[in-house]
Amino acid sequence: MKFMKPLFDQKSHLYLLDAGCGEGTHLSHIQDKLTWKGITELTSVGMDLSKEGIVAAAKEYPHTLWCVADLAHCPFSNQQFDGVFNILSPSNYAEFTRILSEDGCVLKVIPEQYYLRELRCLYEQKKNKPAYSNDNILSRFKDHFKLLSAERLTYRFMLNADLMKPLLHMTPLSWGATEADWQQVQEINLPYVTVDLLILCGKK
């Protein structure tokens, strides 16, 4: 949580939002990390449009605030949050700017070139799609926020048979896939997938 270090010295209580929190795993891990670093005055909110994701988050992590809401209409006051997380999720920069405090930070995580490359190869070759590029996403972020840092994180995540189906369902790569596509990919014994991310930190 290097990007939040300046806030530690300025704020006695941090207010954080995970915009597009899914089932809450990322926000829970972030809270644990901050608590381990001694940040105990902390209010965290997870927001997602998926009611199923929010229900799952509330059951698994009952001590955090969770809400079903649209990024285009965040149900929060102006300048309410010191940190906004947006992890592999759509963005609404106008709303992020509105709800972010003047000295707050936005942390956005986007895929890099080799993110899930083992699956991308299958889909991109079959559908004759060009190789993935995040240049437009990065440029748009820089149009709205002053870029403080951009850190790339790349590693391999080991798989087993039980993880293959959830992995296929969580990635947009499978959107529009036919039944034959599903069958082909599920029969492939992938020992791992590549995780390749770019972590952007910005301020207003």
Describe the structure.
This protein is of the alpha/beta class and 204 residues long. It has helices at residues 5-10, 25-36, 51-60, 93-99, 117-127, 135-144, 161-170, 179-187, and strands at residues 14-19, 42-48, 65-68, 81-87, 100-111, 146-158, 192-203. The protein is globular. The model has no long low-confidence stretch (mean pLDDT 86).
Task: Give a summary of the structure in a few sentences.
The chain has 204 residues and is of the alpha/beta class.
Comma- or semicolon-separated keywords:
single chain; alpha/beta; 7-stranded mixed beta sheet; 204 residues; 8 helices; 37% helix
Protein topology:
Blueprint: H1 5-10, E1 14-19, H2 25-36, E2 42-48, H3 51-60, E3 65-68, E4 81-87, H4 93-99, E5 100-111, H5 117-127, H6 135-144, E6 146-158, H7 161-170, H8 179-187, E7 192-203
Parallel strand pairs: 1-2, 1-4, 2-3, 4-5
Antiparallel strand pairs: 5-7, 6-7
Organism: Paenibacillus peoriae
Domain Methyltransferase: 17-89
Protein name: 23S rRNA (Guanine745-N1)-methyltransferase
